[in-house]
């Protein structure tokens, strides 16, 4: 044995050791009560985990592999593809060939408008949402905008709050708007605000637009709130 | 053509032999039945797509667990990045009453203690103590050295013991 730490580590993987290592551990454990107790504890862990019952297999996995592959192919390629997967291997081989061929112009032509449409959709939603909120709030008198009942933050869905922030800020030039994003830190009982950004009417759209990707990238973001602080 | 059909047979055999084990393994990593079902399917689709590499694979079981682990870890990473929780759900989540726990109801202390472990430790512990993989197989599956596997299993067992004692006290 090279040292106590290594001995303890080997105790944890005792049953995977080769016979020579097992023999060395065995003779050590015979004379060391602490290691004997530890080995018993690790054996108990192995026993507990080995006794975990196997979950019931879902119906989708009880079928043969060909059916599973066909089921996975269906949403990607539609019903016609699924019906072709009488021989799924043939289908998968064919689809991977199509993907990998560099000169496959048809595949490229099909893909690019989809990518373009996918990029357009969030932009369109963002513009429409901002415009809609702006129009609604302009219709109400801007001086009476009450974004929250109290200075405390009313949490809203984060993407919505971020998307509507510029519109709200533009529509209420008399007031500041505070955008608060919440993150949960490990081990903390409650989420804490880690970022507060005052969106003043003139600079709000630029700030909000610049902020959105940065906020959305943060791991563990739980939500955000908008409120107008009292003057 | 013959080699391809042979590879298909091998993949089919791996599916029959290991689908239950892989489903249970993934379920215990993600703690959600539907998600585990989806990821298990994804694992075998990836295995099937990679079947041309089969002749180079020395240990097929380790290879399968490697694909399952990578598929699951990628999915967990994606969820951490994009999980938007409603406010009330977030509070419940913070107080440890997540939907996953509701879903499986009253779980045993062993399952609860296992769920308390980080995935990086839960994965080797499950492979070692539940699925009986050797140290070398786990090393291959996790793409780390054998000594790193031993260290992780040792730490995982220590964490598990502490978590299990906590569960029993509650």
Largest sheet of chain B: none
Helical content class of chain B = over 70%
Question: Largest interface, by Cβ-Cβ below 8 angstroms: which chains and how many residues each?
Answer: A-B, 48 and 52 residues
Write down the Rg of chain A.
Answer: 30 Å
The strand order across the widest sheet of chain A is 1-4-2-3
CATH class of the largest domain in chain B: Mainly Alpha
Roughly what is the average pLDDT of chain A, rounded to an integer?
A: 63
Give the termini separation of chain B: 60 Å
The third-level CATH topology of the largest domain in chain B is Arc Repressor Mutant, subunit A
Q: Multimeric state of these chains? A: heterodimer
Structural class of chain A: alpha+beta
- Strand fraction band of chain B? under 5%
Structure, briefly:
The complex is a heterodimer of chains A (231) and B (170). Chain A has 231 residues and is α+β, with helices and mostly antiparallel strands.
Task: Explain what you see.
The complex is a heterodimer of chains A (231) and B (170). In chain A, α1 runs parallel beside α3. With 231 residues, chain A is α+β, with helices and mostly antiparallel strands. Chain A has nine helices and four strands, in the order αααααααβαββαβ. Chain B is globular, with a radius of gyration of 17 Å. The model of chain B is unreliable at 82-94 and 96-106 (pLDDT under 50). Chain B contains nine helices and no strands. Chain B is 79% helix and 0% strand. Chain B folds into two domains: 2-79, Rna Polymerase Sigma Factor, Chain: A (Orthogonal Bundle); 87-169, Arc Repressor Mutant, subunit A (Orthogonal Bundle), CATH 1.10.10.10. By secondary structure, chain B is mainly alpha-helical. At the A-B interface, α1, α3, α5, α6 and β4 of A face α1, α2, α4, α6 and α7 of B.
